[in-house]
Amino acid sequence: IDYTLAYWIFAIAGSVLLVTLYWIRRLAKEITVRKQTEDALNAANFEISQAKEKLEHRVFERTNELREANLHLEHELAEHLKAKAALQESEERILAITDSAKDAIIMINPSGHVSFWNPAAEQIFGYTVDEAIGVDLHRLRAPQRYHLLQQEAWEVFQRTGQGNAFNKTLEMDACHKDHRQLTIELSLSWLQIRGD
């Protein structure tokens, strides 16, 4: 037996075995790292999937909430438009009545200034709407000799809500814009309008 040859065979076989073991370990390490990376990636994908499902659920819920809120707002808007149309119709009806009335219809605010003056009031007293609105009615309508008396009566009404001329028809003197004296029948009533 040639020991030298056996030595070289064992040496080469040992070297091949060492190189093979080195590569096996390296491959095993790479496989382990790859497996860990795959596991981490799978875990991350699972978390992303869970987060995506939660987000989709939240988006679905929020979309439904917004849809319901939108339907509610559409309903409120429709009700508002219906109420606005009814109010406009009512205002047009009242305006048609007051515009076609042959009697003067005059409204004053809490300070005694004209806030409404219909066309019949224009014809009877001679003042246009623009001239009458905002003017003290007692000075506009009454002859000078009644100003003090009417001012006192107005002050009593403002303090007490009572007056001798309410809820009856009175015949009294009034003035036209051109200073002609008129005899008119006057019916007074009062109502409180929100904001006045």
Task: Describe this structure as you would to a colleague.
The protein is mainly alpha-helical and 196 residues long. The protein is built from five helices and four strands. A two-stranded antiparallel ribbon has the order 1-2. A two-stranded antiparallel sheet has the order 3-4. β3 and β4 form a beta hairpin.
Strand content: 5-15%
Across the major sheet, the strand order is 1-2
**Could you tell me the number of beta strands?**
4
- Shape summary: rod-shaped
Overall helicity: 55-70%
| Derived structural class | mainly alpha
The DSSP helix count reads: 5
Q: How many strands, what sense, and barrel or not for the largest sheet?
A: 2 strands, antiparallel
Radius of gyration: 49 Å
Sequence of secondary-structure elements: HEEHHHHEE
Summarize, please.
The chain has 196 residues and is mainly alpha-helical. The protein is 65% helix and 11% strand. The protein is built from 5 helices and 4 strands.
List keywords for this structure.
196 residues, mainly alpha, two-stranded antiparallel ribbon, two-stranded antiparallel sheet, 5 helices, rod-shaped
Layout of secondary structure:
Elements: H1 3-100, E1 106-108, E2 114-117, H2 119-125, H3 129-132, H4 137-141, H5 147-160, E3 169-175, E4 181-187
Antiparallel strand pairs: 1-2, 3-4
